[in-house]
Amino acid sequence: MAENPFDPVTLSKIANMELRARLIVDGVLSGIHKSPYTGSSIEFLEHKEYSPGNEIKHIDWKVLAKTDKYYVKQFEEETNLRCYIFLDASGSMGYKSTGISKFAYAATLAASLSYLFLKQSDLVGLISFNDRVLHYIPPRSRITYLHTILNVLAGLKPAGKSNISAVLNSFVEKISHRSLIIIISDFFDQVEKIIHQVQHFQFKQNEVILFHILDSYELTFPFETVTLFESMEDERRILADPKSIKAHYLFEMHHFLEQFKQSCFENQIDYCLIDSSSPMDQALIKFLARRESTLRPVHKT
Amino acid sequence: MLSFLNPVLLLGILGASIPIIIHLINKRKSVSHKFAAIDFLLETNKRISIKFKIRQLILLILRASLLMFLALSLAKPFIKNSGGGAEEKNIPTSNVIIIDDSFSMQYSDRQDSFFSSAKTAAKQIVDTFQKDDEAAVIACSSSKPLVLPELEDDKKHLFNAIDQFHPGFTATHIMSALDTAVEILASAKTSIRRIFLLTDMTRNGWDPHWFKSGHEKLQRHVTRFHILDVSEGRILKNIAITHAELQLNLMERNAEIRIKATISNFSPVPVKDLPVHIYIHGKKSAQGFFNIETNASETKEFFITAERGKDIYGWVEIPGDNLLADNKRYFTINASQPIEALLIDGDPKTNIYESETFYLEKALNPGREHLSSIKPSLCAIHEVNNMTFADFNIIFLCNVETLPPEKIQELGKFVQEGGTVIFTLGNNVDADYYNTAFGALLPHRLHTIRTFSSNSPLSEEQPLHLKTTEPIHPVMSILSESQISMLSLVKFYRIFYVDPTPLGSCKTILSFSNDTPALIERQVGQGKSVLFAASIDRDWTDFPVNPFFLPVMQQLCRYVTGSIPEEISKEILVKDAWQYPCAFDTNVIEITDPDGTQTVVQPQFADNEKYFKYEETKMPGIYAVTIDGKLHPQFPAYFSVNVDPAESNLKKINKSEITALMGGTKLSITTSHTGEESNVLLGEAKKTLWGQLLFLTLCILFLESFISRK
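The joint structure predicted for all components is written out below.
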């Protein structure tokens, strides 16, 4: 829920977020990334021999004059990118071992990406959710729109259970084709269901990027003493000797990540696992550099 | 029945609750941590939760039992089994515990001596007794075998009796202790009567003759005979001084003492270069080295010069071994007092070689100076009135025809007051005169002169010889056996027959070969009268020119004056009585034992003789004799007491030999060692459990560390 935009605390938080996001993306732009998007003008793509049924207004008269043949011009469609950022704000995202929580990390990442896209005059929308949609900000391309996104991000607090597949399902019809869909979550849900929903987006020629944010403690499980582990989304708790269960836990976690990664690979979903303890700029640089090196377009035309 | 030696330590069992408390505290204080990937934990925990809980439970049980078993083993549990056999359970028993207190029980090659082990074992046996069991505790000492001689059912009294029991310095006397034990058990009313003998199993003290009749008594009154070997079957090593013999050479200006020390090696290994020291008055005076083979002895002589006229004490010492009691052997030499002898010559000659007293004087003092302790003074018969008999210790009347009546009277008084007169006869002696004048002094009445010479016309028979009487008189004990055998070579051509009936308390020192008395002593008042029934010169005999004439004459003088060094040859062992005749004017003497304890001794009377008897010779060492805190010339300044060397031999007797001694008895005899393996005797008394518990504790500790590390 959004806080009072005039609240000095909120404003200071937004300012802080903006600064952080800007710092990180500036760092990215200055060295490596060059946006593949060319702007909003209609650009010529190729000539095609006229055939009956083609609109006459598209006949290139200059070519006719030169070659005495009928060619029609083919143009690129609307090239402004629509980007939807799904941000998981369930209770499990509030976990932090050291440094910042997974949610704070994810929010910063969302802000950074939003800034990145808006700066490129792309349309950015934000959907925060847990087991339902908490906020929906439709895609806009004005740079000042960033304040709105940041304001929403600052007001979010991770809570509640997560149900990613249900939320994605509710957006399948709303999102038009050829959009970039970024989902930032810890994905503590059923992998099959998530992949299934993502496939729906892909079917509509959307590209999907999954940012998988996990805490370092979740990845390494460095606990020593007998600990009462409490769930962050419900009332479940468990007393366990970490030493005795560490191996099994790491096996389960590894199995989960491998399964997730494999599914993404098979479905051509861009997947990026980020440890919340790692510096965000480096993680972003690494991700964007990888995308460029694979020469995959950000979206299909 | 399970009992504990340190029941207080059972409180330590409460320590078993410590792991449980720690577990509960940990559970309560367990760190709470909000965790996002709880689903993975749940999935993991589902698989290993049961395994984890079982492991934790096992660890908890192991840790609790570890502390519990540790506390239990420190409390030293044992199982009491009062009866031994099943048939004896809950049946009252009568027991006699015999503790060997001989000095061999002081053997110590470990922390405790055998005697301490025996006391501990005795207490353990007493501890197993039930309510109606009764017991007596006795020692193996012959002179004082009783410690708690009556059957007692109060364990406290029994424990006190055992506690107050100290090792002695006597030899083992198993038989007297068994006699006492049988006597005690004969009066017991219970049907089960047992003897527990706690000994080191040394062979000494097991008298085979006793068992010829003793085993019947044992079978009749005793149902079980348990022998506990406190030496635990070990082979014992001991080196001991088994003999120290002294001889005095009285002919030298200073008394030269020859000490013959015999060292015995009762060990299974030979001894090399064993230092042996002789101490005189506490100062090291001589040293020697011994090489002794296994189970053998070696004797060496040491020569020590001591100042004449003083009482001497000392000891032979070897370095300490496992048994210290026999590493010293004490000796004393009593100073010989100067003896003034008056030789009244009844047949003086111009040629002194023919004088009656020539040989006698030379025998009493062979040198020109008075090197011997005897100072002879010569006196012709006409000079006798000038002499005062009281100035002398001995008056020799040598072939004296007559004495003035006043001198005869003086002589009688002299003898009555402690002096000695020695009559030697000859041709001048008239039997009737002597019998009349000296009748109160002569041992026997004189009869007639008889001649025994083949060369003489008056000859009747072959010359007579000398022979000793049985038992050998102290005067003759100075002669060796070979010298005594040479007495038969002495020829007597003429002798005086005496009446067979003695005139008083008489002893024959020497007799002639025809059994007539030759040398006779008589106790007269406080003094002595001695008669030699022949001449002291060569007129009637060749005795004076024989080599043993000198020692016999000197010894006779010492004997009659009471200064014969008898103690040199007579050794007093621990618990033997020291006895010494006393003058009538002495009514009390003090004897100080080696510990410094002084005992006042009163005189005793037996057979008209007054003597002092001291029986408290409890320990080996030097005992001092004083009167009013001062040395007295009439008494030896010291006497020595030693341990019985027979006890130093630690050779053991085994069960089969004991059974053989018992003549195949049906009596149950068990021999066992102390320690864990003694399940025959101590197994009957108790079975200790702490060893097993400690082992179990270690196993649990190992298992716990193994599981917790896994």
